[in-house]
Specification:
- Helices cover 30% and strands 25% of the residues.
- The protein has six helices and ten strands.
- The chain has 218 residues and is of the alpha/beta class.
- The strands form two sheets. Strands 6-7-8-3-9-10 form a six-stranded mixed beta sheet, with helices on both faces. A four-stranded antiparallel beta sheet has the order 2-1-4-5, with helices on one face.
- Strand 7, helix 6 and strand 8 form a beta-alpha-beta unit.
Length: 218
């Protein structure tokens, strides 16, 4: 059992700020997410939700501030081991089949113990599509395949950018079940969402992004 009173946050940021073309996008802001917890990141279009996740994942460099993983300053190596990032882009090879994509990504990123690509396809509702090239999938099916990739990752921190997009009600429930299971196993998640109608029913806090001088974490 994780003692949340002594364990450091799985992911934290202090005084984080990002600007584009000398215009502030967000910050400075402080945030943290503990094991077994989800941080919901809300804000209008253009508020910087996607940019924040890309900065935390190490894909963009912040203007200032510090990012910590498990209590220490985050290195690129730490990010590769601790963070699984679901973006608007699928990061899938369009001409490979779904199962081949997952095997390829497991070879690059590792694999969660006792989880196999074929089982992950079944979990996300893609059983029977093992040989189907990604380019033949619908937008919702591609999102499900991307979710299977995240599910297979051994990383304890999930950064999920609009995971409910392109999914029907069944798909939304799938995302909620996956996040709930991940948190029960000691993981954490940052989830960008446009509203509480699509939010995992788990222990969570809210970070609202607006103008850089108005951001606050609840």
């Amino acid at each position: 059992m994780i003692d949340s009173t002594t364990a450091p946050p799985l992911l934290a940021a202090r005084g984080l700020r990002f600007s584009r073309n000398e215009e502030p996008v967000f910050g400075p802001l402080d945030l943290h997410v503990d094991a077994g917890e989800a941080l919901l990141v809300q804000g209008s279009n253009g508020a910087g939700k996607t940019t924040l996740l890309r900065v935390l994942a190490g894909l963009l460099a912040a203007d200032q501030g510090q990012i910590e993983i498990d209590g220490r300053t985050a290195s690129n190596s730490d990010r590769s081991r601790y963070i699984a990032y679901l973006s608007h882009l699928t990061a899938l090879k369009q001409d490979l089949g779904t199962l081949e994509n997952l095997h390829f990504l497991c070879g690059l990123q590792g694999r969660r113990a006792r989880q196999m690509p074929g089982n992950a396809l079944a979990i996300v509702g893609l059983a029977g599509y093992e040989e189907t090239p990604v380019r033949q999938l619908s937008a919702g099916q591609k999102k499900r395949l991307s979710l299977a990739r995240v599910w297979l990752s051994p990383a304890p921190v999930w950064l999920l950018d609009e995971p409910y997009a392109n999914l029907d009600l069944e798909g939304i429930n799938l995302v909620n079940r996956m996040i709930s299971a991940h948190l029960r196993s000691g993981g954490a998640a940052l989830v960008t969402t446009h509203g509480a109608y699509a939010a995992p029913p788990v222990r969570n806090r809210l970070l609202t992004l607006g103008r850089p001088d108005q951001e606050a974490a609840a």
